[in-house]
Every structure is written in C-alpha cells, then in structure tokens.
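Narrative of activities, Objective 1.

The group set out to show that a structural description can be obtained from nothing but a protein's sequence at a throughput compatible with the screening campaign. Below is one input-output pair from the validation batch, recorded exactly as produced.
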Amino acid sequence: MTAPTPDNGAEPDRVPTPEDAAEPDRAPTPDNPEEQVSQAAVVDRSDHLAGAEKALLRADELYAGYIPGVNILNGADLYVKKGELIGIIGPNGAGKSTLLKTLFGLVPVRSGSVILNGEDITSLKAHSLVARGVGYVPQTNNVFPSLTIEENLEMGAYQVPGKFKERFEFVCEIFPALRERRKQRAGSLSGGERQMVAMGRALMTEPSVLLLDEPSAGLSPKLQDLVFIQAQQINKAGVTVIMVEQNARRCLQICHRGYVLDQGRNAYMASGSDLINDPKVIQLYLGTLARA
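Output recorded for this entry:
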C-alpha cells in the first residue's frame, strides 16, 4: 500500500531538496574510521549472483535518486528467498529507505533492475506491485487517521474485496488488539498501535513479500521489541520480509540475513548472527547504530 494522500487528511510527503541528497563519495581518512568502507569488506558480486539464483525478489546494481544527476543508490544489490526475513542496516544517509522505495517504484531507477518471481518489475507503479504481491509499509504517514481501524484494513483489501473477512482474521491473529478496537479511529491511536494498523493493512492483500521501512522508529523500547516480535510472527506466517532498521543490533538478532548499506552500496552481507559478531561491523556500524 502507498502512504495516505493529502485528500484523506494525512500530510503530504515533503519534496526532497538538494540538501537531502547524499553527499558525494569522499575518500576515507585514517582519522575517521567510521567513514571507512574497507575494500576487503565490500561484497563480491559473485556472492550476490550465486545467492540470487531462484530468489523471490532480487535487485541488481541499482542506481537511483530523487534529484537528476544525484544518486542515492550507487550499485546496490539485494536478494531475498521465499520465507526469509532480511534486515538492512547502515548509517544515516546510507540509502536504506531509498532502497525500499526504489523496490516499490517510488524512486526513479537510473540503472539496474528489480526482478520478482522472474518478472522484471523495475519502476512499476505501486498499485501494479501490490497486485503482484508486494506490500510496503512506509515509516511515516502510514495510516488514514480519519478512518477507523476496520476501514483502514478495508482500504488495504481494495484490490481483493472478496477476501476481506479471511484476511481480517489472518491480520487479527497477529495483531489481536485490532479486532477489539476495530471501530476506533486510527488518528486516536498511539505510535505503536498505528504501526500495527499500517502493517495489518499491507497484509490484507496477501503479499508474498513485505517491505518494512524502520517500523520501530519513534517507539518506546518496549514497543520497539513488540514490533520486532510481530515482524517475526508475520514471517513465520509465510510472508517474506525485507526490513530497514536503525535499531541495528535488534534487527540482526531476528533476521536470517543482513545487509550493511553505506553510501548507497553494499558494504557487508552475511547472516544476522555473523554480522552482529563481526569485529569490523561492530567497530564501523554497530557501535553507533546500536545506540541510535
């Protein structure tokens, strides 16, 4: 699902400005270790190409950005196999959210491709991607505040209205509070409750892959932990999940594989447990990201 539009009361997305663009690549300096991306650490594309065989969704050498001539993604690769939960971490401005938006057709692709189940879906419109089984939960503006919880979920099922009852039951098994409060307006909910509604709405179309953009952002530590548990529940229910997160350590604890993105390209790719214990990843990324 796309974010609510200005017509239904949500604030429109701010138009990116040149100040939002990623800074041009700078040579790492010895006195700035957190800016270094070791050449030895950069993932060899042969690993990606071998792993991406028969993947549910794969992205190859993506170059993309908001402003003409300025790329945020600089050759990013990604793949996810059916049933996986993938985490994407990295410093602020690394292009993590941009990568998800590019997969969902919200950012122009200048080079590279996105393949879903063998079909090229590069730059397809959001409604076409939803119809093909891709769900997306943006970080902000992700509910219709003037509608009830139930009406929000109905909006999620607009392409499959005949399946509303079945999908509603599925969503409420993961988020039981939504059943109890189905008549409450989404605008009166807390941040954690809104996140449940947003994820629930995206699940109404029975997606094969769900894109989550920083679902724990702005939540209390207790609610953050609940969001990660719910992401695992969604994955265990048969939905493949790609999740961008600033809470890097917690994300790596639950994901099957993780990607570290830096300056719009892959810096590391390994299992979540390997990344969380890698001394270089800890030094360059987890030391700051784990506290973010």
